[in-house]
């Protein structure tokens, strides 16, 4: 489908998609460009050479640079800022500082600039279901506790939780904010973890840890993008929502959990041209639990 501007007075007069060249950003920009009620679309990203759309305008820069962000926002004066920038969850430990720089400092900088610019009316933040503390989670709703700011177990999860709190705490009469907590992503142009999954296909025998019956919530890039646009419209026009949206958090998924190994199995079958689960080696989950415990014990002594 082509990206076409359709009406002259859209409810989202203009939008800035921060992280708009990432996986979700690509789908969100496309959704905005195709939406009858969306106007000009701008993108801010550290790397604007990938996942581009012809009818969007691009700014290259880092959101932790407050003055740069202020200049962009004051120049384009968007009515909505979508903050979906984040390092991938699987960064090596040597780069963990990037989580704090983007998910916390970058979020603070964006909120400050948004509150200063009278054109910005709505702020939509992409959080994550991984912000919920103490997995596994079964039927967890939005009241489930998030990771503590002092937690040291996972920097991605911790900083996503901090950003989530910051955005909801910034909600007010002039700047309405909302956080979305998507399930695990999949879809066109999703590459995170793909290399690792395909590398496993090179071995003749594939190993599965656990019985594979554990479920997880997933969301396609397209559905996630639609949710972000709907949230922005509800912030701009609260009458469109069935309840309060500003200052709130919402889980986002395809609507039905799937087995943890489902997507991996689809990828493996496509790569090998056969159903790999007929030959997969299944190890009980306790084997890995013991292995991790022993590794942690050895490292700490």
From TrEMBL:
Alphabetical list of InterPro entries matching this protein: 3Beta_OHSteriod_DH/Estase, NAD(P)-bd_dom_sf
Gene Ontology biological process terms, A to Z: steroid biosynthetic process
A GO MF label: oxidoreductase activity, acting on the CH-OH group of donors, NAD or NADP as acceptor
SUPFAM superfamilies in the record: NAD(P)-binding Rossmann-fold domains
Domain of life: Eukaryota
Residue span, 3-beta hydroxysteroid dehydrogenase/isomerase domain: 16-270
One Pfam match: 3Beta_HSD
Protein name from the UniProt record: 3-beta hydroxysteroid dehydrogenase/isomerase domain-containing protein
Organism in which the protein naturally occurs: Fusarium oxysporum f. sp. cepae
């Amino acid at each position: 489908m082509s990206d076409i501007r359709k009406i002259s007075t859209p409810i989202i007069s203009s939008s800035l998609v921060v992280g708009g060249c990432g996986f979700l950003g690509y789908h969100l920009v496309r959704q905005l460009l195709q939406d009858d009620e969306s106007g000009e679309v701008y993108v801010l990203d550290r790397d604007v050479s990938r996942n581009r759309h012809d009818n969007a305008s691009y700014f290259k820069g880092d959101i932790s640079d407050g003055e740069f962000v202020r200049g962009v926002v004051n120049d384009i004066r968007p009515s909505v800022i979508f903050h979906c920038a984040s390092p991938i969850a699987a960064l090596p430990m040597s780069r963990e500082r990037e989580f704090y720089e983007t998910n916390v400092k970058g979020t603070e900088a964006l909120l400050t600039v948004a509150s200063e610019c009278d054109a910005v009316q709505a702020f939509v933040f992409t959080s994550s279901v991984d912000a919920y503390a103490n997995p596994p989670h079964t039927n967890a709703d939005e009241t489930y506790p998030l990771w503590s700011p002092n937690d040291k177990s996972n920097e991605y999860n911790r900083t996503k939780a901090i950003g989530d709190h910051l955005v909801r705490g910034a909600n007010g009469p002039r700047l309405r904010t909302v956080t979305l907590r998507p399930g695990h992503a999949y879809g066109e142009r999703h590459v995170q973890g793909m290399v690792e999954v395909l590398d496993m296909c090179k071995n003749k025998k594939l190993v599965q840890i656990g019985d594979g019956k554990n479920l997880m919530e997933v969301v396609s890039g397209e559905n996630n993008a639609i949710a972000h646009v709907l949230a922005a419209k509800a912030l701009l026009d609260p009458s469109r929502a069935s309840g309060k949206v500003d200052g709130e958090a919402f889980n986002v998924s395809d609507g039905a959990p799937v087995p943890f190994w489902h997507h991996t199995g689809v990828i493996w079958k496509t790569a090998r041209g056969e159903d790999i689960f007929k030959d997969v080696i299944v190890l009980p989950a306790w084997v890995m639990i013991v292995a991790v415990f022993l590794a942690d014990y050895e490292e700490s002594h």
